[in-house]
Please model this.
Amino acid sequence: MTRFGVMKHLKVLEEASLVVTRKSGRFKYHYLNAVPLQEVIDRWIDPLVQKPMSRIVLDLKAELEGNENMELDTRTAKPDFVLETFIKTDVSKLWDMLTKPEFVKEYHFANAVPNNEKKMGARVDYVLPDGSNMLSFEVVDEEPGKRLDMTFEPNWADKDVPPSRCVYEIEEVGDVCKLTILHFNVVPALEGVREGWSRIAASLKSFAETGEGIKYPPMGS
Model:
């Protein structure tokens, strides 16, 4: 900036009482005036930090968006994430591996154990070894052996992240099964689920074909 430009801006700040000046000989010193800034903070910023109203709005947003996800038609909507893999097994075995807790715990990358079987109307919590609830699903539609449609509630994420939707689709192709995983309404806070799905699919394939899931290092290591 030119010297004239600096002086012009300082004059505006001085007239607004955001800067105070003090002359000493040939020099003029400028100081930040904290009082009006604190008044702005007290009036506008602190209520947002305390966020009584903003919390209500965010909770309402999450609830409404969650309802939208429940009504989403996943047969026609465009997914945000799609993963496809081929697994050498039959349909009934793959369906059991996707839905029954005793199988899921053998290949889940975070060693999370479902507390319930995935079936129509069921709510399933994925419990970590430390007892915390990592993830919750609610089955909203199913075609046994073909399709499983669920809500996806990331309990590890900030509580303002709304539920999304995920779908398992199974197609028999010769002597193998094609498993397609679709995830809808993936908000930025859920970008990490892409790697999670990849780990689950790879470990599931290994478990189905060899009897052993992939032993991943602990999360975050």
Summary: The two ends are 48 Å apart (CA to CA). Helices lie at 3-15, 34-50, 52-71, 91-99, 101-107, 193-210.
